[in-house]
Amino acid sequence: MATIHDVAKAAGVSAMTVSNVLNDRPHVRAETREKVLRAIAELDYRVNPAARRLRSSRTGTIGLAVPDIAQPYFGVLASHVVEAAGRRGLRVTVEQTSAARDRELEAVALSRRLMIDGLILSALGVSVDDLRAIDYPLVLVGEKDLADELPQVSMPNEEGARAAVAHLLATGSRRIAVLGGIVEDGGMASERLAGYRRAHGDAGLVPDPALAVPAERYGIEGGATAAAELLRRGAPFDGVFCMTDAVALGALHALIGAGLRVPEDVQLVGFDDVPAARYANPAISTVSPDHEFIAETAVVLLERRIAGEQLPAPRRTVSPFSLALRGTTRRA
Amino acid sequence: MATIHDVAKAAGVSAMTVSNVLNDRPHVRAETREKVLRAIAELDYRVNPAARRLRSSRTGTIGLAVPDIAQPYFGVLASHVVEAAGRRGLRVTVEQTSAARDRELEAVALSRRLMIDGLILSALGVSVDDLRAIDYPLVLVGEKDLADELPQVSMPNEEGARAAVAHLLATGSRRIAVLGGIVEDGGMASERLAGYRRAHGDAGLVPDPALAVPAERYGIEGGATAAAELLRRGAPFDGVFCMTDAVALGALHALIGAGLRVPEDVQLVGFDDVPAARYANPAISTVSPDHEFIAETAVVLLERRIAGEQLPAPRRTVSPFSLALRGTTRRA
DNA sequence: CACCTCTCTTGTATCGGTAAAAATCATCAT
DNA sequence: ATGATGATTTTTACCGATACAAGAGAGGTG
Fold it and tell me: In what residue span(s) does the HTH lacI-type domain sit (chains A, B) (predicted)?
């Protein structure tokens, strides 16, 4: 495979000039550039990222660390990130963290040494303290609010949850369960829960704590389990707000399995708008954030940080959203 | 960040000896190894993959090229590949090809230059001819049968489809539609279709061609569209074999939306066993290949190829499978 | 015409590892 | 004691790119 020196020889210039052309540096005569480009095309030359990285940093690869790429939401996110990065000539390496703090930290630590220029981290386990010291291009997506310290693109957690629950209330539900939150310090769940509470507050209602059922994970299994637990408790309910669509999918399955009619007996809404939600039976109504916006914004922010730019406050960007009303809710 | 030379100095040996320790090469005295390891730990030294790659190839990163990681099956596959690779100290870079031949070829071509030691390719678009000349560690997964040329880990396409359709026949279906195949040269669809035909043949039946509805993609949308088309045709049917679970999810939605009862009026089976299938309503019966086996095998094969080993024939490894019988089929 | 400036181009050193060959050392047979 | 043998370690060079500093031309100026 051709090296920069082969190109230089073919074009009758020095390797450095080829490098200058490759990196769009000024002070290269148009005619020289032409010659070089022709030689590059002729030899089908590609830069060797290892060599470039060794000398200058910059590999053209970014990292994406998510809890589990098999989960629909992260698959969708990853897909958009890969595409957005691709449009900018970047490739993406995926890490899976299982939402565990140490694995998230490991991903961050490794990145510094890895062939990676920066990292997009879907942070669930780490805390602000863990990340404060990181001197490394890092952009957070979704989940926890750590935006005081680092640039972050997040979901419209509170606002979206509020809108969803408000819709349930507007269509007649009065006892609305909330499923799937591991409610803790400033996490996604607590923000969505805040939206749930605010919707109630706005309507002059106070939700029954017996209707809040946490779940280990935000996955389908967790949703099914949480719904089963809700049924077991025996507290009456006529609406369910699920922290994620995956939870909603599992919960819907469990509720229908228990003989409840959705949406006649129980309305249900999810959050995330993954493809499967649209094709559930009935189709799941959900908060639909703009996944492409999130991915695109995260990549752009990361690119700017890699370029050394200090991002101006406010550092938190919230995705726009819409309410996708489908078969698990009644018409207003 | 510490370099190999810092470690060498700290341990009082040469850089080369440190390198020998790092790479588990023979002829290093136990005592020396100790000293070096202590120095490594003390300085928290990590090899710089760029430098290693530049000199010797080997980056510790492999590529995974799939059509679209947002599709549940590929998300599951990617998740297992990332884990299997992680167990061996390898990282994974994901490419998306949209199942397009040129993007698949691009992924292969790039790999050679990328910071990647080898590539696992989920080939849909490329042909044997495209890949014949590739002199590069490459392992194929699923889909097309190209195993004459390259090592491949594939789904139990024909056998699984046969078993699934045989079950439909055994439980009373007589007019079984097949949804979602882009039937072409030796592709996955034609293998699964062969299984469908063989099940019919074994039962002394001949399937009605009017019941075969192709689909552009194997996604959820494609399944919904294909099912709609099937209904439009008006040919009676009492069973549906879907090429993938994604197709099954979409089809199930469309069929139920049209007022059919599943499984009473129509039985339905999918293929892949993605998580969402289990939690559909009713839960989708499906052919369940061993995803972990596929990922693990692909990574192991790739690792051996990277090590320079010539893999012995037979080069095609087929995943074991089971039939996951759930709510969309009747009891035998 | 000498001298300066500005643009364009090129040597040289270097990033952090590893391959290959050479050097050192301990052990042992002669 | 001498050379041979094999184990262990070091020296040297280089992978392919880029940073930096310095060189070469072209045009302008006094």
Answer: 2-56
Percent of chain B with pLDDT over 70: 91
CB of B151 closer than 8 Å to CB of B311 = yes
Q: Which of residues 85-104 of B touch strand C (CB under 7 A)?
A: none
Residue B293: pLDDT above 70?
A: yes
Q: For residues A311 and A140, give the distance between their C-alpha atoms in angstroms, rounded to a whole number.
A: 13
Identify the segments of chain A with pLDDT beneath 50. none
CA A136 to C1' C16 (Å) is 20
pLDDT in tens, A13-28: 999 999 999 988 888 8
Give strand D nucleotides closer than 7 A to any protein Cβ: 7-12, 14-21
* Residue A246 burial (CB count, 10 A): 31
Q: B202 CA to chain A: closest CA distance, Å?
A: 34
In this model, does residue B113 exceed pLDDT 90?
Answer: no
CB-nearest partner of B50 from A54, A76, A83: A54
The pLDDT of residue A184 is 62
What confidence tens digit (pLDDT) does each residue in B189-238 have? 888 999 999 999 999 999 999 999 988 777 788 899 999 999 999 999 99
Report yes or no: B199 and B162 within 8 Å, Cβ to Cβ: yes
* Residue A58 to residue B115: CA distance in whole angstroms: 12
Chain B hits for A281, CB-CB cut-off 8 Å, are: 252-253, 256-257, 280-281
Whether B185 has a pLDDT exceeding 60, the answer reads no
Share the mean pLDDT of chain B: 87
Residue A205: φ, ψ to 5°: -115, 160
DSSP A143-208: SS--TTTS-EEE--HHHHHHHHHHHHHHTT--SEEEE-----TT-HHHHHHHHHHHHHHHTT----
Q: Residue B138: exposed, middle, or buried by beta-carbon count in 10 A (0-12, 13-18, 19+)?
A: buried
Nucleotide nearest to A29 (CA to C1'): C8
Per the model's pLDDT, the better-predicted residue between B239 and B217 turns out to be B239
CA distance A239 to A172: 9
pLDDT (0 to 100) of residue A237: 97
Q: Which residues pair with A321 in a beta bridge?
A: A289
- Span CA (A18) to C1' (C11), Å: 15
User: Which two three-digit tokens encode residue B126?
Assistant: 């490329």
Round to whole Å and give the CA distance between A153 and A119: 13
Residue of chain A whose Cα is closest to the Cα of B48:
A113
Whole-model pTM? 0.86
C1' (C3) to CA (A185) span, angstroms: 71
**CB B61 within 8 Å of CB B90:** yes
